[in-house]
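Journal club side-thread
Mid-discussion, someone asked how the predicted structure for our own chain would compare to the paper's figures. Pasting it here so we can look after the session.
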Amino acid sequence: MEASATSQLTGLSVILITKNEAHNLAACLRSVDFADEIIVVDSRSQDGTLEIAEAAGARVVIFDDWPGFGPQKNRALDLATQPWVFSIDADERVTPDLRDEILRTLRAPQMAAYRVPRLSEFCGKPIRHSGWWPDYVLRLFRRDAGRFTDVTVHERVEYKGPVGTLHACLLHYPYRDLDALIAKTNRYSGDAARAMAARGKRVGIAGVIGHSVWTFIRIYFLRRGFLDGRHGFVLAAMAAAGSFFRYAKLMFLNDGPADKRDR
């Protein structure tokens, strides 16, 4: 992309991975247009994602296979050419305050990695309890200092050393509506169950019940989800449902393939 005079001093690559993110991508890319380059690694989107990315000046690279979130983000990281990297998801936005703080930080960095607070919105409401805030995530780091964990879901940046903290927040719009939350909960629970099964983890009925009940208690009461009103109640209930799905799926995976059980 064509960098501004300001961004030319930063040495910053923005990286993100996409799959049918046309509804999110334009706003996301506008929020990071101060970077020297934007790298988009796509998984054969069919909804206009590629055209939006290219129109924004991003470098787009397409992969046919899906190795999981961690390996896919490492592919994007490997394509970056600038000394500093900011990792963002399509459903996130860099605020003007965060942009300015990133630019100030990169003019005289004191650390090799920085975390940022992330403020998430659910059904039109910013969530400031329920364990959702201040949700620090390590996103800004020297390209040669960090790498994503090699996991299918819930990837994070691995970095050994002191981590600085930025103060302006990253905005997060994870779910367009309740249907999107339900669909994502089901999809992620399957990925998580398979990952646990691969590690040899086992669970029974008591574990399935216990994990889901404890999840609701932890989020709604201990993390004060009740202060988020009805939104907090729904989030706690959906987190409990996600835990139930995850461990119920693991319980059946523990039995082995269905075709072998039926013989």
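Post-session note: Helices lie at 22-31, 49-55, 69-79, 96-107, 178-198, 205-222, 229-253, 258-261.
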